[in-house]
Amino acid sequence: MKISSWLLGGLVSAFAMVSAALPGAAEAAEKYVNTPNQYVTVDGVRLAYRSLGASENAPPLVLLQHFTGTMDDWDSALIDGLAKRRRVIILANPGIGASAGPAPDSVAGMAHLAEGFIDALNLKSVDILGFSIGGSVAQQIVADRPDLPRKMILVGAGPQGGEGIKDLQSVIADGIKRAGEMKVHPKVALFFTATDAGIAAGNAYVKRSNNHTVDVEQQASQESIGAQAKALITWGMSPSNFAQLEAIKQSVLIVNGSHDLIIPTVNSYVLFQHIPNARLILYPDSGHGSLFQYHDLFVAEANAFLDGVH
Question: Could you tell me which InterPro entries the record lists for this protein (predicted)?
Answer without folding.
Answer: AB_hydrolase, AB_hydrolase_1, AB_hydrolase_fold
